[in-house]
Every structure is written in C-alpha cells, then in structure tokens.
Amino acid sequence: MTLLELSGVSVHYGRIKAVSELTITVNEGEIVTLIGANGAGKSTTMRAISGIRPVSAGTITFAGEDITRLRADLRVVRGISQAPEGRGIFPGMTVYENLDMGAYARKDRKNLAAEMDHVFELFPRLAERRTQAGGTLSGGEQQMLAIGRALMSKPKLLLLDEPSMGLAPQFIQQIFRIITEINKEGTTVLLVEQNAQQALSRAHRAYVLETGSIVKSGTGKELLADESIKEAYLGVA
Amino acid sequence: MTTTTTKTTTTTGRRSLGEWWNNLNRFQQWAILIPLVVFIYALPELNPPIITTEPGYDFPIAMFEVARYALIAIGLNVVVGQAGLLDLGYVGFFAIGAYVAALFTSPDSALTKLPFLAVLPIAMAITMVFGVILGSPTLRLRGDYLAIVTLGFGEIVRLLADNLEPLRGNQGFQQVGHPPGTHADGTPIFNNTDGTPWYWLTVTIIILILVLVGNLERSRVGRSWVAIRDDEDAAAIMGVNTFKFKIWAFVIGAAIGGLSGALYAGQLAFVNNQKFDVVTSMLFLAAVILGGSGNKVGVILGAIIVAYIPARFLGIAEYRYLIFGLALIVLMIFRPQGLLGARQRLLTYGRQAYQRLLGRGEQISHDASVSTDRNGGV
C-alpha cells in the first residue's frame, strides 16, 4: 500500500529551483532511499515532505490524504517524523528533554517511558548521556539523539536526512543496522544518503537524484549492480 | 554517574545557585522568600543609607522606576528570552498602554472616563490586539528581519503619537487617573509626588505576573517556546505549532508592556509624546540582555541595574548609554548568557521525576552494539 506519494513536486528557493517535478512513492513497510551528490536536492525534498519548506508545484499525499498545504506540526500528528540533516537537536536541552520533545505531538503522554526505554535500547550511549545537554554530545551521539527523538512520536514514516554524515565508519554501520531494525519493527523509512553503498544495500528501493530531478530508480540491488551508479556514487571504476 | 559529577564540579555560580534553590524543600524556600518579599515591600520606607538615591533623587520614586523597569523586563523576557524573538520595538507596546490609560482617565481626552484600575486590563487587552496585529504578518519572518520590523513598529507608534490630532502630541494629557483612596487630609494616596504606593502596587503586580509567567514556562507553552528559541525548524518537526506559540509570546509580552505603560502614565499623571523613542526600547532590551535573557530573576536584576544606577549616581546618569553600552560589550565577551543565564527545567513531570532521573544511572556498555559487518563505510 502506498504510504507517501510525491507527484510532480517542485521546490524553489527564491527564483532558484532546487527540486524539479519529483515523483516518488514510498510503500508501507519499505526502506526507500534517495541518493545523490551534494546539492542534488535531497534535503530539500525531505524538508518539503516534513513541511518546513513550501512546495511550488505538485502534490504530496500521505496515507491517502493530500498534505501538500498542511502545516508541519500537523504532519507530525499524521505520523511523519524527521531526523533533520545536521542533526537539528535542541542544544540547550538535555538528552532526556530532547527525547521528551520528540513525543510532543503525542496525545498518550503516559506511555512515554516504554518508548524512551526502546530508544535507550537502540542507542545505549544515549542512556548514559541522558542528563547531558544535547549541544555537548559528539557528532555521532547527536545523530543518535536526532533519530531517537524522531522515533519518540511513534511515526508511520521516518524521514532520515544523512544519518551517516560526519560519522566514524564503525558508527555508520551501527546506524544503518539500527535503521534496518527500526524498519523491521514496522516503521516505513525514507532515507537520504550520500553513503550510497550502505544505503543501497539496506534499502528495498532507491531513487537517484541529480540536480533536482530523478535520473534513475529501481530496487536497491539493481542500482547497486548498475554500472553508471557504481561509477558515479560507489567509487568503483 | 560520571557525566553528572564532572558537570556539577565544573558548573559556575549561576548554575549552582539555581540548583541550590531547587534542592531546598518548599518550607525552606518559603522561609527565604517571605522575609525577602517583606524587605522588598519595606524598602521605600526603610530608605537605607548608601542604597538610598537621596538627596539627588526621591528614593520611593526611584524604587517605583526600578519596579516599572522590572515589570517591563519580565514582559520583554517572555518575547526575547523565552521564545527567542528579537523585539526592538517593545517601547511601542509600552506607549500604547500609557496612551490607553491617558485616553480613558484624563480630562483632556474626549472619551468616557473610567476608574484607573479598570483601565489596566483594558490597556492590556488593547496592547494584546496590537500584538496580534503586529505579530501576524511579522512573525513569519525570522531573526534580523523580525528585529527590523519591530524596530519600525516602535517608531510608527511614536510618530503616530507625534502626529495624530487626538493624541495631542507634545501638549499631552494632564491629570491621568490613579487608583482610588485618600489620606486622612483628603489628598489622594496615589499621587505623583509619593512613589511608595505606586511602588507597592507595581511590586504586587510583578509578583502576580511572575507566578503567571512561571506557570506558563513550566507548561507545554514554555516547552514550545524553548524549542522555538533553540531551533525553530526542529520545533516544527516535533509538532510545535511555531507560529501560534510565537504569537502567544508576542501577545503576552505586549500585554505586560501595556500594563507597565499604564502604570507609568498613572504615576506621572501625564503622558505626551516624549518618552517613547528607540533609545528607551534599547534600554529595556539592555535590562534583559544584561541580567540574563530567559531567566526571570536575571532580568529583574538587569532592570534594577538599568533603572537604579542612573538614579543613584546622578553624576553618571548623563553617560548611562555609554556605560551600559560598554557594560554590554564586556558582558558579551566574558559572559554572553548575561549575569544570570537561562537554564530551563523543561520536564513537565516536575522535580521529583527529574531527581529520580538523576539518581538512575545504570551503566550500559555501548561497545557490544557495534556491528561486526565490515563491508561498509566510505
């Protein structure tokens, strides 16, 4: 079943078109990845889906509802949650408070403890740091916090924007392993990545974005084997 | 837990002062608060040597000025400190409050006369409306843009006061009203030569506002403000209706500004177009930044400094902008968070939950969770 559908979505920054007539579908239960170079429009697409960037053309449909003009905060209530690029955690709040903010949109605030335990299970490092201010965490820890915080709202769709950015290789693998785990628990994941190797091997389907347009799509395996993809994104000549 | 202990040892005085206060039980807190409040109320009567501003400046009047600045700082702190919206035109709300008080109580105004105390909520309501009018279009802007638009708003209000016929420009409104009550000899208790009753009234209002604002800060509203201040986009994707809460901060701040404007008009018993310039706005903002944006006690301290020092040391009053300017620069270098910086307790579950949290420090190994899979990475 289709959970998220972008059809003909364009996004502008002033007069500059960052994303051009994008059509993407994400089915329930999938990991879908969007790969592409810097400036290809990956993050812009994510920001359009979460609603912090208005779209200039096209429609976004989520769980059968047109959310193109819906406010960002209401999209969270519908079940879209984002771990933004560059982490975007609240630096002045502790780890615990950051996670608490993640559950802001939830009505059933009494069951937060279970969700929080789950996040601490996925990221034991966060449990150790729970009273520490978010801004004092290392890059990898902030990334974990951003993902954990996004999970606190019990999303239907989790948007992950460059979760591996700036991380040490061992952390990158850990993060991707956790993404697969989150997906197996029933959360649909839309993943934006520069680390194409990891993203493609984890994803069910993938789209390749170049200067604001989709140039290729297919299953993760297909694209992993594709010669032009290998050359451009996997560093294999 | 190791992280906690290293933190406590490296904290500054500000942090440990707040922590010390939070660790006292209710009884201890009251045992400190009550004598403090009594002392604050008694100040104009005590007129303590050294602290007193006399003979140069009437001490009770000076104390009223300090209290008025404190009230303004508390209001501006909601906007700047809590929600992180840089408002450079706060004096506009203050002016509107003063003019509303004048229009409804002065015999120079054509409007129906109302009792002064009834005018206070009206002044707040009208400034709130102006808060919405200014906020709705401008709060979609961010940072510098918002600062510039609010700066413009302050100037527009001042220019309207200069030029609108019914606002009487420089001539102004005489005999602005005051709260009821007379002394035995028939002279009103609230008059413009005796600052003490005005001081008491303002301090009482400050306490009420502090309780209200304090409760707001600890509520979902306060958490939303802090989230917006920390990172507006991140707040939005947590599900915070950023626009709504920014408007709320703006409107609550405006109401408090209007209230202090009405009190100012009442005490002075006169309003004209002179006291509402940009520099006054900057002085209000200086009180907030100096004391510690986001910290209620801090901004009161800032207001005391900004209002008291020029009254106490009349010799330097002329140079106060220079001195406060230098003080701000020095502060921004050595203590950018202000004298008493902000640290929010955001947990909605209260103190006990927080302490339980601090006590719970089981060690969990993270190495075990590192994957053994080796084919990835860049």
TrEMBL record, chain A:
A Pfam family that the UniProt record links to this protein: ABC_tran
PROSITE patterns: ABC_TRANSPORTER_1 (PS00211), ABC_TRANSPORTER_2 (PS50893)
One annotated GO biological process: L-amino acid transport
Coiled-coil regions listed in the entry: none
Keywords from the UniProt entry: Amino-acid transport, ATP-binding, Nucleotide-binding, Transport
Domain ABC transporter: 4-236
SUPFAM superfamilies: P-loop containing nucleoside triphosphate hydrolases
GO MF terms, alphabetically ordered: ATP binding; ATP hydrolysis activity; branched-chain amino acid transmembrane transporter activity
Family according to the record: Belongs to the ABC transporter superfamily.
Listed name of the protein: ABC transporter ATP-binding protein
UniProtKB/TrEMBL annotation, chain B:
GO cellular component assignments: plasma membrane
Taxonomy, superkingdom: Bacteria
Keyword Protease: no
TM regions (residue ranges): 27-43, 69-102, 114-133, 198-216, 247-270, 282-309, 321-340
Compartments, record wording: Cell membrane
Bilayer topology annotation: Multi-pass membrane protein
Molecular function terms, GO-annotated: branched-chain amino acid transmembrane transporter activity
InterPro entries hit by this protein: ABC_transp_permease, LivM-like
Pfam families linked to this entry: BPD_transp_2 (PF02653)
Keywords: Cell membrane, Membrane, Transmembrane, Transmembrane helix
PANTHER family: HIGH-AFFINITY BRANCHED-CHAIN AMINO ACID TRANSPORT PROTEIN BRAE, HIGH-AFFINITY BRANCHED-CHAIN AMINO ACID TRANSPORT SYSTEM PERMEASE
Protein name (record): Branched-chain amino acid ABC transporter
